Amino acid sequence: MDIDRIFGLPAHPLFVHVPVVLIPVLALLTIALAVRPAWRARWGVPLAIANVVMLGFILLVTGSGEQLERHIGAEPLIVRHRELGEQLRMIWALFTAVTVGLAIVDRRARSERAAGWMAPVATALTVLSVVGAIASTVWDVRTGHAGAKSAWEDTPSGTAKGYDGGD
Prior knowledge:
Layout: E1 5-6, E2 9-10, H1 11-15, H2 17-35, H3 37-72, H4 76-109, H5 118-152
Antiparallel strand pairs: 1-2
Helix pairs in contact: 2-3, 2-5, 3-4, 4-5
């Protein structure tokens, strides 16, 4: 889904605030559930669902970013921002798959009929979820920094490149 503008404003700078804020929050919650496995019984599935929803937002942000890049051009800083955003999208997709898998395996491992292999798999997925949380946050910061740099670097007037305020 590509959305170019919202109320006459470029959509991408508005949409990016969702992942910029919520990726680190969801990552911290994931780490909290890794540290406190008992919390996963109640919060593992809602967190996995939130990560899937965030993946949808990341796809929306990517689409609006592609529209914006077509509008303002592919300068080197914008290309770098796009590359990091594509990497973040892939990292988040893998991270989401791990957290969904962990929610499923952890839930089944807590049942009376749990197979013996589920506990070690849950442990492995827990470790991978922490690694994914850290990697996602690092890439979120890197991507956001590159985007801010592409918009504001070399703009002494303090206005973002490519926008004159008109329609």
